[in-house]
Write a structure and sequence with these properties.
It contains two helices and three strands. The protein has 88 residues and is of the alpha+beta class.
Length: 88
């Protein structure tokens, strides 16, 4: 169309994910193989950025971006791997 100007405005929305960290105990941990199983199960979840376990302390530390990961999804993956976190 002659004499007409079209203006296109682009809006960029920046999404900021929240980083979360949680350390918890898993009483079913008895060896480093248990820790490796937990690290593999949680490391496969989208959004999980770090997993480290300590067999002697029966402790696991997980870092994740929320979303896409959530504590409920992490807890569910632990239960599926037969290493539920101790509640309480």
């Amino acid at each position: 169309m002659k004499g007409r100007t079209t203006c296109v405005v682009m809006c960029l929305v920046e999404r900021k994910d929240a980083m979360a960290t949680k350390t918890f105990t898993v009483s079913k941990i008895s060896c480093n193989h248990c820790v490796m199983t937990i690290e593999k199960a949680l490391g496969a979840l989208p959004g999980v950025t770090s997993v480290s376990g300590d067999a002697a302390a029966k402790a696991v530390t997980v870092e994740w971006n929320e979303p896409p990961a959530t504590w409920d999804a992490i807890r569910s993956a632990l239960k599926d791997a037969n290493y539920p976190p101790d509640e309480g």
